[in-house]
Write a structure and sequence with these properties.
By secondary structure, this protein is α+β, with helices and mostly antiparallel strands. The protein has 2 domains: about 150 residues, no CATH class; about 100 residues, Chitinase A, domain 3. The strands form 2 sheets. The chain has a 4-stranded antiparallel sheet with strand order 4-3-6-5, sandwiched between helices. It has a two-stranded antiparallel sheet with strand order 1-2. The longest helix is centred in the N-terminal third of the chain and has 29 residues. The chain starts with a helix and ends with a helix.
């Protein structure tokens, strides 16, 4: 989500500039005794500073729109999601740039995600869906743990395990006992790939089969009990909604952004994009960009 926030804010700052240019390049924006500043001068300055970024994004949106569709329902849901996540920050962006413009930015981002999801290859054992119950040592996981804190956490997790062993529902026990922020959701962590969790947690989660519950696991945060609620086994037979949920988890795990870039490169190639401006002739030349 943090990456989405940064991307949205940056896009507003950069793409908003491109709207300044129109057919009347000679129109005067500022008059001074030393001379006037025209729209053409402003556009050329923008082109030098951020032209490549703007042009690339415009092309990506154009070519992806031919293959993918973002429905009004999907866009409304994303808008509300970002509004809930960013709060006042999002409202300020909308007030400054207009709701229509922000919705277009979100639509562009969603088109890219759809293209990237098509490039995600799901292999068994790469992602897992799990819930957990945490008995934490303290509010500061980097602080040295005292014997008293460890004993208190162990006592609590033992009580939790006893309740689970007696047949109480995992979700109900998590809501009542877990010290993690996921407690209100029954401990649900959603889908996650390897490298997202601490090693002890990851090893246990990726060892369990769907429906299985772990023994007590110790990490730097405290004691955990994990329940695996979903795996990629039988992926081809899953409904599209669940497949997309898994693909999104894998896409989020790709912190390098390689999957997205592969999708964008493919879209540009398939659309037979030809850059007419000599200044940007290598805009989509990955070899030239790497030099």
């Amino acid at each position: 989500m943090k990456k989405s926030i940064i991307a949205l804010t940056a896009a507003v700052g950069i793409l908003g500039l491109s709207a300044c240019n129109n057919a009347d390049d000679s129109a005067v924006l500022v008059e001074t005794k030393a001379g006037n500043v025209t729209k053409e001068e402003l556009y050329n300055a923008m082109k030098d500073q951020a032209g490549a970024v703007i042009l690339k994004d415009l092309v990506y949106t154009k070519v992806l729109s031919e293959k993918y569709e973002v429905t009004d329902k999907e866009l409304d849901a994303k808008y509300k999601e970002m509004q809930a996540a960013l709060g006042a920050q999002f409202d300020a962006i909308v007030e400054q740039n207009g709701e229509d413009f922000v919705r277009e930015l979100l639509k562009s981002d969603m088109l890219k995600e759809k293209a990237a999801l098509d490039q995600v290859e799901v292999k068994e054992g790469e992602v897992v869906k799990a819930s957990h119950i945490l008995a934490k040592f303290s509010d500061n996981p980097s602080a040295e743990v005292t014997d008293e804190q460890k004993a208190a956490a162990k006592k609590k997790i033992d009580e939790v395990k006893a309740k689970l062993d007696s047949g109480e529902k995992f979700e109900d026990v998590a809501k009542e006992y877990s010290d993690d922020s996921t407690a209100q959701n029954g401990g649900d962590l959603g889908w996650f790939g390897k490298g997202r969790m601490v090693p002890e947690f990851e090893e246990a989660a990726f060892t369990l089969k769907e429906g299985e519950t772990s023994d007590i696991i110790e990490s730097q945060y405290g004691y955990h009990i994990i329940k695996v609620t979903g795996t990629t086994e039988g992926f081809d037979k899953m409904d599209k909604e669940k497949q997309d949920e898994i693909r999104k988890a894998l896409l989020q795990a790709d912190q390098s952004g390689a999957t997205l870039q592969t999708a964008l490169d493919k879209a540009v190639k398939d659309a037979d994009v030809k850059v007419k401006d000599k200044e940007f002739k290598d805009l989509f030349n990955t070899e030239a960009a790497a030099e």
